[in-house]
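Sharing a chain and its predicted structure for anyone who wants a worked example. Both blocks are below, sequence first, C-alpha cells second.
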Amino acid sequence: MPKPASFLSLSLLITATLCISLVECRVPFACDPHNGLTRTLVFCRVNLPIHVRVRDLIARLTLPEKIRLLVNNAIALPRLGIQGYEWWSEALHGVSNVGPGTKFGGAFPGATSFPQVITTAASFNESLWEQIGRVVSDEARAMYNGGMAGLTYWSPNVNIFRDPRWGRGQETPGEDPVLAGKYAARYVRGLQSPTGLRLKVAACCKHYTAYDLDNWKGVDRFHFNARVSKQDLADTYDVPFKACVVEGKVASVMCSYNQVNGKPTCADSDLLKGTIRGQWGLNGYIVSDCDSVGVMYDTQHFTATPEESAADAIKAGLDLDCGPFLAIHTDMAVRRGLISETDVDLALANTITVQMRLGMFDGEPSAQPYGNLGPRDVCTPAHQQLALEAARQGIVLLKNSGSLPLSTTRHRTVAVIGPNSDVTVTMIGNYAGVACGYTSPLQGIARYARTVHQEGCSSVACRTNILFDRAEVAARHADATVLVMGLDQSIEAEFRDRTGLLLPGLQQELVSRVARASRGPTVLVLMSGGPIDVTFAKNDPRISAIIWAGYPGQAGGTAIADVLFGTTNPGGKLPMTWYPQDYVAKVPMTNMGMRPSGGYPGRTYRFYKGPVVFPFGHGLSYTSFRHSLALAPTDLSVLLDTNLFATKNYTLSSNAIRVKHAKCDSPPSLFHIDVENTGNMDGTHTLLVFSTPPAGQKWSPDKQLIGFRRVHIAAGSKQRVKINVHPCKHLSIVDEFGIRRIPMGSHSLHIGDLKHSVSVRANLEGIKA
C-alpha cells in the first residue's frame, strides 16, 4: 500500500542528505576498489596511460561481448566488474530526459532549463555560451553521481538553419556558419571543461552533415538524399563541425539520417574517416543518429543484406550505434568476412577511451574530480540567475516607435493577451528536461503592473475568433497592451517542418483587432524558434513595438517583462534572416544550394539579396550607438609558402591564392573600433563585422560574418573594441571545387555602420625569379 506523504518526504530528505554528504548514490561503473576480483586488473590502474588500459580491456572481451558494446544500451560485464551503460543523454540547453540515459525524480526533481539555443545564439556572447555549458555539465555530473544520468551528452546541434521552415532550426545557433562554429566550440568547451585529457562530460556535435529537413510535403529525413556541392559543403555545412572538432576538441560527432550525394552519412568513409577523424583529427567516437544504421537498410535499401549495412557503417568509421542494429547484425558481418574482429576492436577503442577520459574506470565517483557534486548543485540560485540573464541577452527588439520601455507610472494596467501569454513549458522548446520552475510572461508583467488577462486564442493554432471580443475589451480598458503570440512545438518541432511563415490560424486577425481597440500602446511579443512573416505588424502604426523572445527558457516571463519595462535594455541580434511568405513559394526545402541560380534566389543573408522582413543581425536598443575607427590598417599581406612555390613552379597569375599555399600562422592584423553610447540609457551593443570580397569573384558571398563582440557601455561613454582580422581565416572564400582561396585586391569590411577598404596582396619576398 502507498506510504504516507510524511514518510515519503522523510525518505527523500534522507536520500538527498546521503547524496549530498557522501555522493555515493552511484555504485562505481567499473574498477570498484572494494571488489577484489577486478581492482588489480590492468585496465583499472589509473597510473597507466589510457591507451594501455583500453588495449588490456579489449583483449579480455569475447566477440559477443564486444558486439553488445557497439550500441547505446551497452551490456554489463559482471565477470569484469563493469556495469551496463546507457550512452544516450541530451543536454541541448540544460540536462534533458529526452534520452533514456537521464531521468528526474527523488533528490533530482528537475534541472536548470536555459533558453532554447536559437535564443541564446541571439546574444552573440561567446563567454555566456561557455558559462552555460559549465553550469549544465555541473548539473549533469551531479545527477551522474546520484545515479540519475550518464556522462555522454549528444549535444549541441550545430546544423545550419538553412531553411526558415525547418522544425529543428530552434535547436541550432542560426544560419551563419561562423556564428554556429563559435557557438559549437564555446558550448563544447563549457560542457567538457577538460583538464588535460580528462573530461567532465563528453559532448557530441550533431548531425553530420547537411541535415536540415525533417518532414516537408511528404519528403522525410529517412529518405532524403541531400545533393550538396563541394563548395557548399566546405563553406557552409561543414564549418561548424570543423570548429567543434578542431577548436572545441569535442569528444564525439553524430552522423545523420540523410544521404549526402547518394550515400548515407553513417556509411561514408570519406566523411567519417576521411574528414572527421582524418582531416580534423577527432579524438573521440562517432555515433549514429538513433536507428539510422537500420534506416540505411530498412528504408533507404542501401545494401542487399543487413550485415552489409552493419559492415559498411563500421568500415566507414562508425563506432557506436544508437539503436539495436549493430548488436543484431555485426556477428554475421564478421562471419561472412565483411569486417574483421579488428574492425570491431578499433570502434570499441574509441568509445572506451572516452569512458576512461571521463573517469568511469577510476573507481569511486566520490574520489574523482567533480565527485563532490550532488543535489545541492542543481537548480542553484546562481544557475537560475544565469538562465534569466541568458534570456535577457537573447531577446531581440525588432521594432520600436517610441512606446518602449513601458512606464510603471503611466502604464499601471496592462492587458496581457495571446495564446502564449501565460505559458510555461512552451518557453523551454524541445530537447528540454524538467525545469526548476517557471515564470510565465503574465506572471513577469504582473510584477510591474496590474494585469488583465485574455487568451484570445485557446492555442497557437487559433482556429476560432470566439474569444476575440473579450481580448478587445481588455485592450480598450488598459493603459497598454502586450500580445504574446507565435508558435510552439505543435507547429515546429523534430519531424515537423512548417509549410509557411505566417502566424498560425487567426492569430494575425487577433493582433490587428486588438491593436485597433487598444487605448494605449500595443506591443507584439513573439515566441518561436523559426522566423515569422509579420510584415503586417511591422507596417501597422498601431503596433508600436515588436519583440522576438525565441523560446526564452524557464525564466522567460521575467526576462520579457524586464525588457518591456526597461529594467533590461535589449541587445540581442537575429541569428537568422526573417523572410517574407512569398520567399518559400520560390524555394523547395529539398534544394540544398546556398547560392542563387536561375530563378532560385539563394539562401541566408550571405547569398539571398531579395526583400526581407527583418535581416540577419537586426536588433534595436533603447539607446543609440556610434562607431568610429581608431586603428584600421588599409593593407594586409599574405605570406606565401616559399618552398611550395619554388618546388612546384607555381605562378601568381590567379587572383586568388589557395589558403594551403599561404603561411597562415602569421599574426593577424588588429582593428580598433570605438563604440560610443550616445543615448541616455546604459546599454549592451553587439558589434558585427562582415567582409565582402573584391568584385568579380565568382560564387562568392555577398558578405560574410568574420567576427563579433558584445560590449556593455554606460550612457555617454565610449569603449574600444579590438577585432583581429587574418586573411586566411577571415577574408578567404571557397571556389566551386571546394578549395578555400584568398582573393587578392580590395576587400570591404562592414563594421557596424562603417565601411572600410583593405587591400590584400601576396608577399613574394624570398621567392627567386
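Comments welcome. The radius of gyration is 27 Å.
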